[in-house]
Amino acid sequence: MALVCNMFVKRTLTVLLFTCFVPITIGNTAQAQKVANDKASGTVFSQLQIPYGSRLAGLGGVTIAIRDRDPSLVLANPSLLDSSHHNKAVLGYSNYFADINYGVAAYARSWKNLGHFMAAIKYMNYGKFTETDYIGNEVGQFHASDYSINLIYSRRVDTSVYVGASLNYLYSVMDKYSAMGIGIDLAATYNRPGSRFVISGILKNIGYQLKSYTPGTRGNLPFDIQVAFSQKLKHAPFRFHVAMDRLYKWDLTYKDPTEQPEIDPATGLEVVNDTTGFFYRLGKFGGKAMRHITPGAEILIGKNFYFDI
Known about the structure:
The chain is mainly β and about 300 residues long. It has helices spanning about 25-40, 55-60, 280-290; strands spanning about 1-10, 15, 90-95, 100-110, 115-130, 140-155, 160-175, 175-190, 195-210, 225-230, 240-245, 295-300, 305-309. A 13-stranded mixed beta barrel has the order 1-2-3-4-5-6-7-8-9-10-11-12-13. The longest helix is centred in the first third of the chain and has 16 residues, at about 25-40. The radius of gyration is 22 Å and the shape is globular.
């Protein structure tokens, strides 16, 4: 759960106080697990999956389909950028797990004939590490951190359809080693005027690692296909939100390579489960489907005050 406090100062500056909510959220935990999985599978710049916003973290940390005056939502979905974010800024900081911390600074501006623009800088600092030689003797310390510069553009192409893109320059440094990459996010949002229903689709992290830490170890950006939709109730201060991610792969089940077959102690034979029954197949289907789905809800306490689950 996340408690979000957004303060609009003179209608030009939005300060996102990440410390206004519990930092260890369900969204942060899920994203940490995804980052760990990506490290194991050979993808790079996994910090791209970290939710740089408290509302996004509170709603599961995937993507978001909410159109309002909060410019931090644009960091997750560029097609949400519109004229309501004109001349507003985002400042954010979060104390993550261990000694890791990250933050963001962004500014948005609109031009009538050109569209809507936002520039953002994100960073993630992993703290200090002990450096040792090949036999384990301590020889000093080193730092590790990641940075990205984002240029975001959006415009309305129809009365109900908005499209957006984010061009992302990526830089990572670990002691004397560094890596660079470039990526792009493409998004579209449908929201009929006057409707409380919003749906978005986004292709995330289409790109390439320009420079690897060491020669011959180039990896892939954490590409993803995501869809999200939200529905705000008419006569109650609630909004329900559902996000779906990793839609490019149906079966996300982890198979433990060290798992041993179950043995019947009475017969000594391997236990074989019936995989042809209706309920077994229904359970397998439901389990695979739910691995893609992140449900959430938002309590709208005030115009700039939200409580996310």
